[in-house]
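This section describes the prediction task in plain terms. A model, or a person checking by hand, is given the sequence of a single protein chain and must write out its three-dimensional structure as a string of tokens. No templates, partner chains or ligands are provided. The sample shown here is typical of the held-out split.
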Amino acid sequence: MDKKLSGSHMRRDLWRLSFAASAALIAFLGYMQYRAESDRVFEFWSQDLKSVGTLKAGQAASWRSERLADASRFVRGPTLVRAIENADKSDLSIMLKLNCKDGLYHNALLVSAACEVLDSAHDPAQPLSTASRQAVGEAVATRRSTLSDFYQSADGSLHIDCAAPVFTGTGQLAAVLVLQTAASSHIQPLMESWPGASDTAETLLVRKDGDCVLFLNKIRGKAGGDFDLRFPLTQVHLPAVQAVRGKRGIIQSSDYRGNPVLADVRMVPDSDWFIVTKIDKAEILAHLRRNTLVICGFVLLGMIVIVIAYALENRARKAEMYHTLFDNEQARRLFNEQFRAILYSIGDAVITTDSQGHVNQMNPVAEKLTGWTEKEAAGMLLDEVFRIVNESTKEPVGNPAHRVLREGQIVGLANHTLLISRNGEEHPIADSGAPIHDEKGDITGVVLVFRDQSDERAAQKALADSERMLSTLLNNLPGMAYRCRYDTYWTMVFLSRGCKDLTGYETSDLIENRKLSYFDLIHPDDRQAVWDEIDGMIKRRAPFTLEYRIIAADGTEKWVWERGCAVFDKDNKSVTMIEGIIQDINERKLAAAEQIKLQEQIHQVQKLEAIGRLAGGIAHDFNNMLAIILGNAEILQESIGQNSPEQTHMSEIIKAGKHAGKIVKQLLGCASKQSVTPREIDLNQAISDSMETLRHSIGEQIELEWAPGDDIWRLWIDPAQIDQILVNLVINARDAISGKGKIVISTSNVKHPFVTQGATGVRNSGDYVLFSVSDNGCGMDQAVQAQIFDPFFSTKPNDIKSGLGLPTVYGIVKQNKGHITVESLAGQGSVFKIYLPRHHSQGKAPPTTVAAVSAPDIAGRPHSETTILLVEDEPAVLELTKILLQKDGYNVLAANHPQKALTIARQHKGTIHLLLTDVVMPEMSGLELSDVIGSEMPGTKKLFMSAYTADIIARHGVINNNTNFLEKPFTREDLEQKVREALSS
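The expected answer:
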């Protein structure tokens, strides 16, 4: 019994010793586990704090750089500078409100260098704080954007301002733009946000302020507002103090509350700010401590159970063992049921395997995709059930389960993988595999999760096709499609490939204004109009269409057509973007301008043709009437005495008749229907012969310079027309000079000067003689130049004789197949250039005048022995001409019809010395009559006369180099001169 008792005591002592040793070992192992877990937790939170600190420092730096960038970009806008220079309050208010960026900035102010508020986006504007004034001073001194220190506004909120100097185009300071930001609404939320749930985690924004560290944001556990908490730098245990003293990285210390904390300290780049991200150690270790207490409780409870179990020993130990086994089996079954419920209800396909890769379980989704049922696949190798190949090459892909079993890590398939089902169907899939561990951490199998991506692939393909189609459409549109921001730079965020062809710049040059903005491409004269038009249409919420000019990369100016509209936000209130298309219409614009120019040319030609038809229609009858008036007036003047009072009246009648004849000639000259006798001439000689007369006509105050060219080509033209051109141009130049001045006449040879259409119509290329008249007079503007060749147009409204000089010159030039141009600017004189076609011939020009022959010396025969056959179908002209010839002593045979003239000629017994005939007559023209007379009477001279225009006379074949011609109306002197010339020819 004693032995049994002794043995019992020994067993009890042994059990106590074992129990104590086990408890000590458990406590030691628990402590070591606690230390290891504590280190792991601290390492985890250290990494988390570093990540948060890096994020917050980056966000603060980005926030600062964005404010500085906004201010710099806003002050570079020429629209803001123009509004300041023009003192345009309305435009300035719009610019400042736009610069608030839909509430991003609390207010936008324009202040002077002395910090006086000039204008603001929102009234009333509060006076600048001391911090803002310091920022304005620094911005003016450094000539760049500057951020102020934090300051409290009147309502107690925390603010920070950005100041940027605004300069004029000459570099002078115009004002300072101040963008006010409510830090309480931007910096504070930025600092307060924490990526996760925590009761003590906190981000502090601090900076050094003298010998203290200043907290810039609200903190936990501190009542009051912002910007009022500071600690001396001597409190080195504070993380904020260590930050400004140069400490960086993870530290363990106590914070402003005296609580132990784990903190990360770092500096905000490009600033004097520091970021402290911290969390209480108590919170970090709270979960670990709770778990430790729970574990300790369980250990203690276990020990008590062991003691009780030892006391009850056999019976209780077995009952407890059976009960535990029963509970474990129940838990295992419950877990298996839960696992199967999850497995079979999940939307993705799931397959589990054992450690050898044999299939254990498959859910219905996996059965559908693989074509195998769970019962059929059970025990099969995964490679037989889950067959996968590369989508492009169809080559087998390594099964992820093998990698999981080999590496013990979660793995995923590469993209573009196909699952080959049991019946050969192909399913694009995405999958991942993960190891299954037992309680020892050993891999007991693999769980493979995958899903069918057929719908996703179809959606991706449809999206890719849609994007490709949209890209093709945009990149093949004429011009370029764009998407830009609603700012003064038209900042582009998208451009189609047509940008290069339209502007000469790559799309990358304009996106986000990397090299220049689209605003810079718009012609300076059109920028404001473009802004006003688009801004106005956006405010009316209507699409806009406009045309304007841009300057391409090569410096050329282009006309473009733009159509677009604004894109509003989801509330349909604010403009988010502007979208549209811009096309090159330069050729269309040039064609339109050329069309207008051509229409003007056609209008000018039609106008002159109308005048020509009018002049031609009245010329014949009017010239005949003038001939009758002049002839009878001269006869009456001879019949009255020289001292008679009627002499003055008769002189005025004759003078008026001659002037009327000149007007008709000028009108015919304007219409290129003047009767002329062209011949080969030397232009230099013709001008030289007229210089003395021209000098007398312009007066002594104006210098006339003659600059003849060398070896000037011959011309085919009536010399009288050269005189007309000279007189009209020189007189026109004289009238343009006030006081002293200079007129220069010059000539030169020009080869092929014309290849395009000009102001006077289509120009033919070839060899021309250039004849120019220039002056240094008052010149002409474009409006006057457009009308100078219009008949009866004059810049001298009180001069009734003006208005036919330049049109006459124009008509003469066109009649001789030449061209005329004018170059003039108001106040800088004018240059008239006349191009006359070269006449190809050899030898010198014949004399341009016929020497006068005295009355008794015509072939040695007196007038009384000279017989003239006069043929004229107008009775009054016939009678008048007959009287004038008889007064000169000639024998006159008169006939009013060609047939009658032939009868008289054939019946006349003597010689007919001269046939004087009208050109246009009924039944037979003057030329036909002269041919008959010439054939029957070979020695008869011929002199033609007509009142018709040159084109009609030319159609009757009369006007040529060897034809004697008398133009109606004529005076007695004209008739006498022409008759003598014809008789002596």
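For orientation: DSSP finds 27 helices and 38 strands in the chain.
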